[in-house]
Amino acid sequence: MWNHLPVSIGVQLVCWALGRWLAVPTRGALWLGCFAGSAVCIMREITQREYQWIEQFGAGRRANMPGYAGLEVWAWNAHSLSETAVAIAGSVLVALVVSHYAADREI
């Protein structure tokens, strides 16, 4: 359940560092990184669901899959849902904590 968390936070920190290097305000860079890290994890789960759909219903052919198959979040398994939720929550927590810290200090 914890596999996506370091990926999400890692992407977030890279975006934050890149944003700071480009003189973007701390909060903006941090929350943009939060979005990017969360998006990476969500897209991975969408792709994984697409492959599961192809194996189960598509006779092994991507052409048989409808375009929305990966977006059927209700068809994701519990592991995918929990892993994605933990990654998003972790990124949001980092953004909230650092934003609060940055409000008091100029970083």
UniProtKB/TrEMBL annotation:
Name recorded for this polypeptide: Uncharacterized protein
Organism expressing this protein natively: Sphingomonas glacialis
